[in-house]
Amino acid sequence: MHFNKVLIFGVGLIGASFARGLKAAHAADDIVGFGRTPKSLKTAYDMGIIDEVGINPGADVREADLILVATPVGQMPEIFQRIAPYLGDHTIVTDAGSTKSDVVDAARAAFGNHIHQFVPGHPIAGAESSGAAASRPDLYQGRKVVLTPLLENSADDIDKVKRAWELCGADVRILDPETHDRVFAAVSHLPHLLAYALVDEFAKRQNADQLFDYAAAGFRDFTRIAASHPEMWRDISLANRTALLAELDRYSAALMQLRQALANSDGDALQTIFANARDKRQNWSH
User: Fold this and answer.
1) Selection from 259, 197, 192 nearest residue 232 by Cα
2) Residue 129 pLDDT > 80
3) Would strands 52-53 and 3-9 be described as parallel, antiparallel, or unpaired?
4) 67 - beta bridge partners?
5) Model pTM?
6) Alpha helix ranges (H) inside the chain
7) Angular region, 282: left φ>0, alpha ψ -120 to 50, beta rest
8) pLDDT per residue over 61-120, tens digit each?
């Protein structure tokens, strides 16, 4: 698998690491980066992550074999609209959005009869650091990437996107968009909300400096993801709000169960919950 020209919209951690992964595999001749800020594009160019800084997408889109849209999901509808008029017949578009149903709806609205050229995707390889400078060529090594193909996609186009991620070292899985959004509301989006909420609540207290001064490994491990990109997680939360609200309700019920056990000094109930959680966590880690 080899690509003559690859376009990346959003040359941050995810997009830049994809570019570096393809370069490390010698799988792309020319990688063109597009973004909102000249500074981030210059960083990516100076680091050799991209070969060109994109200015006007028209000609580049027509010539591209593969386009990755790796921006926050809230920016994707506008980008899809921008590139849709210029799509070449051979061009495949994919994305790196953490939600899929809303992205698919936006793609259908923008691409129309060319929707078969859009293969939705989601790399499970985020980090609290962002930007091209934080990218790594091995970011996807052994990490999962979920594709949520559409009925309109050809098997060949799905395989091309799959192979591109595999060249970066990824383990590619397949889900439908709705199942994807329910699963990641639970295992990704909810933990981010909880981490943000805890740090924000501490930060608003009068003794916030004292709390952060004494916070140690447990707090650091639990809240690491609260250092993630706020705009990206705002967009993800709103895009997947139905599934996320359901997960928040489940978690709220679990917290109330803990609160009731504490209020009743019910050590047996607390130990049962803690032991079950420890066992499941250890099994998952192994």
Assistant:
1) 192
2) no
3) unpaired
4) 7, 93
5) 0.88
6) 13-24, 38-46, 57-63, 76-83, 101-111, 155-167, 177-184, 190-203, 208-214, 217-223, 230-239, 241-263, 267-285
7) alpha
8) 999 999 999 999 999 999 999 999 999 899 999 999 999 999 999 999 999 999 999 999
Give the confidence band of 36 by pLDDT, cuts at 50, 70, 90: confident
3 state DSSP class of 196: helix
Domain count, the chain: 2
Phi, psi of 172, rounded to the nearest 5 degrees: -90, 130
CA distance 261 to 24: 54
Kindly indicate the confidence band of residue 59, based on its pLDDT and cuts at 50, 70 and 90: confident
Same domain for 209 and 280, yes or no, is: yes
* Residue 173 DSSP SS3: strand
Return the residue matching tokens 């799988």. 27
Of 175, 207, 224, the residue at which a domain comes to its end is 175
Residue carrying the six token digits 């978690």: 251
Q: Are 143 and 170 in contact (CB under 8 A)?
A: yes
Amino acid letter, residue 65: D
CATH number at residue 245: 1.10.3660.10
> In 10 A of CB 255, how many CB atoms?
10
Which residue range forms the structural domain that includes residue 26? 3-175
Per-residue pLDDT, 127:
67
Residues 44 and 31 in one domain: yes
CB 139 within 8 A of CB 22: no
In whole numbers, what is the pLDDT of the chain averaged over residues? 95
Q: For the beta carbon of residue 59, count every other beta carbon within 10 angstroms.
A: 11
Query: Is 130's pLDDT higher than 80?
Result: no
